[in-house]
Amino acid sequence: MWIKTIGQNIYEIIPATICQYTGLKDSSGNKIWENDILMRNQDPNDLYKIVFGEFDVINTDNLKVVTKVIGWHCRVLKTDGSNECIPFCLPIPLSKRFIKRAILEVVGNTINRSNSEK
Question: How many CB atoms lie within 10 A of CB 47?
């Protein structure tokens, strides 16, 4: 349940169901929201969850943490196993450049697992 009625015209909003707009759009022009699932290059085995928070920036040559950053990023969703391998499983900053290069498209979200109009 996303909203619980407490009284007449008074609602309690469940914080876990609120998603923020990232300020970015996918390759098809759809807004990208927190907790959205994005598919890369039309590959259903290459999925990301959009998250806001702290994440490690990792040097892929030696796999050492370079720094920590707070912001929008993509976390890999485990699918067929190939995306669980380093460096494919590392968090990736969400940016216009990455969206365009990876041809990212919103295919649903982790709250209701289906694509909804936003």
Answer: 20
